[in-house]
Structure formats: C-alpha cells, structure tokens
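Kindly review these tokens for lecture notes.

. . .
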Amino acid sequence: MKKEGQGVIKRPVSLSEKKKKPELLAPGGSFAAAKAVLDAGADSVYTGLTRFSARAYAKNLNEEELKSLLDYAHLFGKTVHLTLNTLFKNREIKEAAELVGPFYASGLDAVLVQDIGLLSLLHKHYPLLPLHASTQMNLCTAGGAKLLKEQGIKRVVLPRELSLTQIRKVKAETGLEVEVFCHGALCCSYSGQCQMSAQLGGRSANRGRCAGPCRLPYISRETKKRYLFSMKDLCTLDHLPLLQSCGVDSLKIEGRHKSIDYALWAVEIYRKYLDRLEREGEEGYFVEEKDRELLLSGGSRSGFTDRYLFVHNDPSLFSEDNPSYRKGEAALPPAALRLPVRAAWEVRTGREAALTLTSGDTKITVRGAVPEKAKNRALEEETLKKKTETLGETPFLLSAFEADLEEGVFLPLSEIKRLKHEAFSLLQDRLLEPCRRSMAESAVVLSGLTPYEWSKPFFTALVSEEGQLVPSLAAKKLRRIVLSSLCFPRKTVGRTLPEAMERIRKAGKEAGFSFPAVLREADITFFSRFFADKEYWPDVFYVSSQDGLALLETLEFPKERIVLDQLLYAWSNETKAAFQRAGYLYDTIPAELKKAELMHRENGGSELIIYGRQPLMHMAGCLFQRTTGCHKAFPVTRITDRQGEEFFVRADCDSCMNILLNGHVLNLLQEPDQTDGLKVRSYRYVFTLETPEEVEGILKGEPLEGVSSTKGLFMRGVE
C-alpha cells in the first residue's frame, strides 16, 4: 500500500463531478461466509457451487444454500453473482447451463463466465440474466470488451494489471459496467493465460484448481532472490476516489479461498471508506493509519501494493524474500441483517382473527380462526406481542406493534403461532416477488456445430527467431510458416516483416503472423497503424485474445483467414460452434484436453501442436527489470526449481511482457497412431529457442538429442 507521496498523484479533472458510488463486491467461499459479508456491509457477494467453480477447493454452496442466499440478499436490496468462470468439456457444458435454470427463476443477479460456449448458451436460454466476463477472459482493451458486449456481456472484470488510465478508457468507450479488483491476492500471470499448474501437476487454473507453483522458490543466474514470481497482495484503499472517478461500477475483494475473518476485515474497512467518500467527497477523503494496520491484521502476503494502478512494471510488486502468507486475526462477527416490520392484530369475537404485516410499501393480511369468549384465562396484549416479536432466525425485526384486542377473548397460542408463520412467509414471498423470473423453457438445447469436411492434415511451423526461418523455408513438408511477433522488433518491423513474408511466399508457402498472447492498448495502437496498410497483411493471422479479434475486425481482415490460438479456448463443440457462428472457422487444440476427450470433439477445423515449448505464464512483471535492468534487448534466461528442473524466461520487450517457457519440450512427433485418429486440419511445430540446425533436424524427423521431452497433457489431461 502506498504510504508516502500521496499528494503528488495527479487527480483527473472529472473527479469533482458527482460520481456513482461503486458497488462493494465480496467473496463468499461458503454459505456462512457469503451471509457474513452481506451482514458486514457488502453490496454484493460472489460465490460458486460445489461444481464448476473457479475456486474448486473453496467450500462453495449447494443448491439449497444458494437459493436461501438469493432470498436473503434480495430482501435487503443486495445481489448475488454466481461464478461459472471455468472452461467446460463436451460432457459438461450442457449440464452447467441447465444448472443455472432454478437460480435464474429465483432471481439470480449475474453469472460470471469465461467459456464462450457457456456465454452463448446462457444468453440464449436466460435472456434477462446479466452476464459478466470474468477476468479469466483477459480483456485488456475497449475493443475486446465491445466484441463481447455484442454477445450479451453486461459487465467486464478487468485484469489486475491495468492502470487507472486504461480502466477509464474501457469504461468510457464501451458503456459496459466495469468491475476491478480492489483488494487481495495478485497472480504473477495474466489471468486465464496461465498453464503452469496444469502442465506441471495436472491442476488447471482454468478449472479453479491452481496449485500455486509460482509461489515456490526458483533460482536465476541474475539474482540471489529465491521467490521470483510471488507477488504481494493488492490494496487500493488510498485510491478509492481515483477508482470512482474512472467510472468503476464494482470494487471486488479477492478471497474465496481465505477465511471469513479475512473477508470481514476487508468488507468492514472498504465499506467505511466508500461511505466516507460518498459523504465527504474527494476533498474530505483520507485513510487513517489504524485502518491500514487493521487490513494488514486481516492477512496479507508480505504486505500490500498498489503499483499496477500507476505503472506497467515495478519491482515493489513482488515479495521475493518472504512470500509466506500471514494469516489474519479474528474479526467480530457482524450482526445479522433484519428487515423492520410493523404488525397489527385484530382479535375480536364474531370475526376471523387477522394479522397484518407492513414492510415499506408492502402490506399483507392473513386470517384464521374465529376467537371465542374466554372460559378461563383471556388473551392479553403483552402475550400477543411477545409471541409476535419472537422471530428466531427469520430476517425480520418487529419495529411496531398494535392490537385491536377485544377484552375477555381467547385465541389458542397454536393458532397465533400458525398465523404468525403464515404471515411472515407470505410477506417474504411478496417482497421477493419482483425478483422472480418465469422460465420460458426448462431444457437447454445445444446449438450444434457445422461439421468440417476432413482431408489429409498439412503442416505448419511457427518461428520465434529470424534464424529459424531459413530451415523452415527449405522444409518441403511445411505448407505454412507463421512468424511470431517476437521475430521482429517494432523499430525494424516495417522492413523485416514484409521481406520475411515475401520469402515465404516465394518458397510456395502461406505466410502467417502471430500476435502476442496479451494485447494491451499500446500494442493495439501499434498493430492497427502498421496493418492498416494491406500490403503488410499476412495470408493468415494467429490470435490469442478477444482484443486481437477486435483489432482485426476493425481492420476488416477476413475472419476465414484467422486461426484462434490456444489461449482463445475452445474446449467443447458448443464453444467451437459459438466461434463458428461469429465467423471464426479455425482454432487450435487446447493444451489441457487429453486424447480421450479430443476423440469426442470435432477437430476438423483445428490445428494440433505436435512440437514446442509450452508457454506456462505470460507476465506483466518483468524479471529482467528486477535483476539486470531494462535494456529492451529481448533477453532469455534459464531458471531452476527446487528439484533442479529447468525453465526459461523470455522477454517480449515491445509488449513489456515476460513469457515463462517449460524446460521440457512437447513432443508428439513419434505418436502418429495417437494423433491421426483425431482428424485434425493441421499439425504445428512451435520453435522458440531452437537453433537453425536444431530446427532443420526436427523438421527432417531426426531424434531429439540432449533435450528433455514430454507428451504434456495429451495422455493425462487435467482435473
């Protein structure tokens, strides 16, 4: 957390305008935690079910608990967001969509999604349901966000790596609701772009099962620091006025894996300061030191940071010496929320006993048995009041009581209890009635994928260094050569890229170009200007993000000449169908699906990577800036883990990004019996660190020597 120099931050001119107070959105890793954060002052809670949650190891909620939570939240004007922000296999996606049905009818306020196929199904079958694009979608620009807006997205959860300026731009240019993380853990990798846990241990971050291998020690020749990828926790408490000025609609506290105490500390303090900001405005806003300490006491990983709000990169983001998590202290449990209700009884002989309850503008009356004259002890008003105000675990509180009670009348206590229960149940139903929705249909129908005509697969090679191009040009087996953006520093790309594409075409092959996996606003600006000249267009673009698709749509590049790369995940046929309807016909086989699962997937328009080092993480935080300094030289270094396993870190200096590469090379070259049955469209070689001589040997089919190889997840898949 920034403690010095607060006054030097330049505040935007628009800050003086009246801004809408952001929603405070808190984690609910269990039913108890979800209810507690609402009681503590959160406006909304996000939670998952026991299946299909992006926090699979949280307790999560069962279906009855989620329905109860919806009712509880809605009674107090609060909202519940269901997290289904994982990727779905063929056998799962229909079930996941149908799972939403009962909660949609109960008034579910939003669903958080990552999978484009699920997004399409939910938008079709639950038209009134707000859909939020998870941070797992890695939407860094307004263009990518607008593309998803056309598909039904109402809100985007932006990456933690974006600055205030970039957040403001997305909000201003899209008109979408914008949600940003305000507090909690930071991942070293861009969300949705991490394969590390999956590749190393089969626990996929895209399935909510990340094992956190980035938190472990690694050794680099450039530094004596051991924890190269472990980041401090995020805290934005000092900057709530700035976030509000950006138009942020929702401030999200991370922490479904953490304790209730952690969530309660964060909610209590952020609630205090959001209310202070609304009450006193920017000029009266300040943070008390004791509250910073309370946040720290709630738990952190080596303290707090806020630097991503202001800079792309900063060494202070990392906890390189001590990444251990400091567990928090116990928080006082908040008082349960109670809705004030006025009760009025009419108990007179000759007419049915009646109880009228009023809450706000809602008024209901229930009637029961006809009272009789008392034979022994008559009903007293004090008794009637005591029985009425005893409400147990209900969400109501008796705020006023009156009784038109005839003297000497008798009404059985059992009847009073029955009428009270009936009345409060009816009142709750009446209050929740506006939240309910009718269901047009009960069963989800899959859209269906137009099948591809299969023919013999062709071969593609992606090259990441100019020296790898020469042997690739000479390889007769290759039909297409894809040039990585890493090949061509932007200061010379205007000359070198056209020359390379001309050489490829003269060799009788298709020329492709691969964008960086993550495209930030500066990248979009550069590439949109460069490729505005159609003479620079390749035959095929390989794209890894919605931001890249939006860029090519702006350029009016033909969609049938675009290949969706691995990080535009298409695990299921339904997801492929959604992309197909949008005009994107070709994709890349997901790295996390095993062969048995791929046999049930339509692969006719897909490319299978059969050789190459798997990118494990794409990181904004630069290892080289923290060690040798920033020289814009596209350096590569080798690191090792505790067991001596090797990895490589490669800098993409033009995109200001590091790429962590697996030390083991994916090698399916010797598996023709395994891969042929998939009926893919093409096979791809991915060359990253190979020398020209190594490229030549690999393309000739010579055995790999001195290189550790792996089949990746092709045979074992992920949980």
Summary: Residues 260-280 form the longest helix (21 residues). The CA atoms of residues 46 and 81 lie 5 Å apart.
